[in-house]
Amino acid sequence: MNIVYRIMGGVLLIAVIFAMIAAAWYYRPWSDYSPSRVAEAFDPDNIVDVSLGMSSYFPHANIEADRPAPLPRALGPLQVSYDFDGETRSLEQYLEDSNSLGLIVMRDGIIVHERYLNGADAESRPTSWSVAKSFVASLIAIAMREGHIDSLDQLAQEFAPQFEGSAFGETSLRHLLMMSTGIDFIEDYDDPDSDIGVLFRDPFVFGSDIDEALLDFERETEAGTELDYISSATHILSAVLRSIYDQPLHEIVQQKIWTPLGMEGQAYWNQNVPGESGVALGYCCLNARPVDYARFGQWYLQDGVWEGERLLPEGWVEQATQANAPFQEADATYPLRGYGLHFWFPETDRGEFFAAGIYGQYIWVDPSRNIVIARLAADPQWGVRTGETFAAFRAIAATVAGEE
Fold first, then answer.
1. Which of 21, 261, 280, 309 is found 20 to 30 A from 223 (Cα to Cα)?
2. CA dihedral sign of residues 263, 266, 272, 273
3. What is the DSSP letter of 44?
4. Cα angle at 119 between 115 and 125, to 5 degrees?
5. How far is CA 28 from CA 32, 34, 115, in A?
6. Enclosing H/E stretch for 110
7. Residue 300: beta bridge partners?
8. At 8, is the pLDDT very low, low, confident or very high (cuts 50, 70, 90)?
9. CA distance 63 to 51
10. Rounded distance between C-alpha atoms, residue 383 and residue 335, angstroms
């Protein structure tokens, strides 16, 4: 019996040791980031805290505002109402219901309304989620203008050799931008084990190589034949940029966008591990002040010209903000909206377009009224609220333009 007890005791000791090791790995008291902290980020009760403080949940790299040039302001109140679904609603109701964090309205390059809610303020840096995709697309356009890219029909692997021979590597920059890769990648935000759930979670939990994680996906339909919105396409584009400039993504953003546009505040981009070895999640997770998101929209309103200097190729804004194929037209694939080159456009003939992210992040541009709206939110119902969001933004634009 003594032998049995000794064996049982040894097994128990080993089990306790393994449990202690697992607990240490999960909580990582020696680190600012841990799997337990990542798990907290997925708690719906933490959505506002996560939206305003991604740096406390995930590693990041700073984007410096080394040449800030505050935008002119002529602030005033904004009384807006609109009709939606048979009901007259107010802007105040909309902002409250949608768990909004910040609202910036610009007309003629001047901020005319600036508001912060739910604990946010002017220096908060709410996360952009997929609005970041439009920044990556803009960097691709800048690389074209600088002569690093000859044609959008070049394959990703020509620039990023780590993807040589893979389905993503053999996809053109054009089809990556159009979200028409034909690659079997499941983008289901409600399923943490879907491809996007794993691609978001594993780099933070395991420090995994994001590029390597995309090597084994296969193409199931011909590229350029249908719209299939997948975040992995944008990450490939970010890898192309890293190879072209031989720099991490946050440094490219700083040099090519943040400094030339005179962004007002420091921003940051989340990456898989802390420090210089970290790789940005190229499809999301730029975190910046609401006014700087609005400035990005103003840049597009001005056709990619800032302070008299053309930064985006001539014709890029028009190409990026409208359908490049029939399947990208509004309602062809997604209700109420269509897709261009990493920008969306609503079902309208006014020429509006927007960058958008999960939970209600928007940079809305109305060229006919010379208006830009940046709205940041932590809205779990952002998807079903799409139609009302468009109605609210149009009412804001009409009111500011003096039409209502």
1. 280
2. positive
3. G
4. 75
5. 8, 6, 38
6. strand 110-116
7. none
8. low
9. 18
10. 11
25 and 17 Cβ atoms separated by less than 8 Å: no
Listing DSSP states for 388-400 in one string gives: HHHHHHHHHHHHH
Amino acid at site 147: G
Q: Is the pLDDT score of 149 beyond 90?
A: yes
Beta bridge partners of 309: 306
Q: What are phi and psi of 102, to 5 degrees?
A: -160, 145
Q: Are 214 and 235 in contact (CB under 8 A)?
A: yes
- Residue 106's pLDDT is what? 98
Query: What stretch of H or E contains 106?
Result: strand 100-107
Q: What is the pLDDT of residues 29-66, one digit of tens each?
A: 545 676 677 778 888 899 999 999 999 999 999 999 99
Q: How many CB atoms lie within 10 A of CB 276?
A: 7
Q: What is the pLDDT of residues 316-346, one digit of tens each?
A: 999 999 999 999 999 999 999 999 999 999 9
> β-strands 305-306, 371-377: how paired?
unpaired
Distances in Å between the alpha carbon of 145 and those of 138, 267, 338? Answer: 11, 25, 26
* Token couple for 283: 């499809």
Residue type, 260: P
Query: What's the Cα-to-Cα distance from 110 to each of 147, 260, 367, 375, rounded to whole Å?
Result: 33, 18, 14, 16
CB of 382 within 8 A of CB of 358?
A: yes
What is the torsion angle, in degrees rounded to the nearest 10, for the CA atoms of residue 346, residue 351, residue 352 and residue 353? 70
Q: Who contacts 65 (Cβ-Cβ below 8 Å, separation ≥6)?
A: 258, 263, 264, 265, 266, 267
d(CA 313, CA 5): 77
Tell me what pLDDT residue 190 has: 87
Q: Cβ(204)–Cβ(284) under 8 Å? A: no
